[in-house]
Amino acid sequence: MKVLAILYQGGEAATNEPRLLGTVENKLGIQQWLESQGHEFIVSSSKEGPDSDFQKHIVDAEILITTPFHPGYLTRELMEKAKNLKICITAGVGSDHIDLDAAVDHNIQVLEVSGSNVVSVAEHVMMSILLLVRNFVPAHEMIERGDWQVSEIARNAFDLEGKVVGTLGAGRIGYRVLQRLQPFNCKELLYYDYAPLPAAAAESVGARRVEDLKEFVSQCDLVTVNCPLHEGTRGLINADLLKHFKKGAWIVNTARGAICDKDALAAALASGHINGYAGDVWNVQPAPKDHIWRTMKNHLGGGNGMVPHYSGTTLDAQARYANGTKAILENYLQSRPQEPQNIIVGDGRYESKAYGQR
Ligand code: NAD
């Protein structure tokens, strides 16, 4: 059986750190195991264009393993060429780089290692919330420059206590963020999600559901985005919606870059309407060198907490999603049923309710 994995290049770091399992070098720790059973295992980071390893090997691979951190974009057109492809496994969480509607049409299963990195991301969200609200990045840059001007930083530094914080999407990550926000004594915790939380779960974190999106964003001092990217969320935070955000609001997005309109967001930040934006996800990955989100700033020269896509690929998370990928492979190879929570697209239909309402 031919198994193709598109992973990120780990370079020297991966040679020196074997726990970087999600890299081309360390191959999710499954190379020996797969090859000892007689399977062919191709691993590469080359994913763009007709000469890429991805496009070359997808034509006869039966199993495709991809990762959201270095997404191999599996389009409908590529699926049409992938005559043997039966199953796509996302080593991580978030399968928007795969055309899920096309997977349904082509009877290709799509599975994720659900839950594998949700704590990792929720912790990153908490860090990003604090670094924006407290104006951390410009403060650190000032120190590195050798300067010391407290007022320059303090004029845009606040406490999280007393603020209204809302999560757009209250699934595994969104809910964990709400849990972690509790001890900060926010004024109110809100959520917007077409799937309401069970009453006991909402009550236990003290979160109120707001059913209208504009109403939701207009009430929040800070919005954290925790929903998947699908046709209902692509470009959801656009120029029109941004007008409904409170002036001076912060946005943290570790879900997917394309949920926010790149240029509308940068403009809202520059104008001061949005005070800060932080996250690790980009509309194209790797982000081009001149991507405006790398350098965009608020009207005071701060408000940018962007990093490369790594919140869900801590070493702890890599151990979990590598194990989870192997478990999915084992089930597939031994024709055993998959864990229901991991199935995004099953036999010709969506099994997950998180990728849009249908
Ligand atoms: P989940 O399936 O547990 O929860 C997603 C929630 O979003 C669900 O409750 C769903 O109903 C809700 N939702 C879907 N569409 C919505 C919409 N239009 N408006 C409001 N809510 C909507 O998923 P999760 O484990 O919490 O992960 C969420 C997303 O986070 C993933 O799909 C992925 O894109 C992203 N993620 C990022 C990283 C990272 O490293 N940055 C890692 C893991 C996951």
From TrEMBL:
A single BP term in Gene Ontology: formate catabolic process
Catalytic activity: formate + NAD(+) = CO2 + NADH
Pfam families, per the entry: 2-Hacid_dh, 2-Hacid_dh_C
Major location category of this protein: cytoplasm
SUPFAM superfamilies: Formate/glycerate dehydrogenase catalytic domain-like (SSF52283), NAD(P)-binding Rossmann-fold domains (SSF51735)
Domain of life: Eukaryota
Compartment(s): Cytoplasm
Transmembrane segments: none
Sites annotated Important for catalytic activity: R256, H309
Span of domain D-isomer specific 2-hydroxyacid dehydrogenase catalytic: 34-337
Keywords: Cytoplasm, NAD, Oxidoreductase
Enzyme class per UniProt: oxidoreductase
The protein's Enzyme Commission number: 1.17.1.9
Gene Ontology cellular component terms for the protein in this record: cytosol
Positions that bind substrate: V93, N117
Leader sequence segment: none
Gene Ontology molecular function: any one: NAD binding
Positions annotated to bind NAD(+): R172, I173, D193, P228, L229, H230, E231, G232, T254, D280, H309, Y310, S311, G312
Positions of the D-isomer specific 2-hydroxyacid dehydrogenase NAD-binding domain: 127-299
Subunit and partners: Homodimer.
NCBIfam families the record matches: PRK07574.1 (NF005750)
Family per similarity comment: Belongs to the D-isomer specific 2-hydroxyacid dehydrogenase family. FDH subfamily.
Biological function: Catalyzes the NAD(+)-dependent oxidation of formate to carbon dioxide. Formate oxidation is the final step in the methanol oxidation pathway in methylotrophic microorganisms. Has a role in the detoxification of exogenous formate in non-methylotrophic organisms.
Protein name, as recorded: Formate dehydrogenase
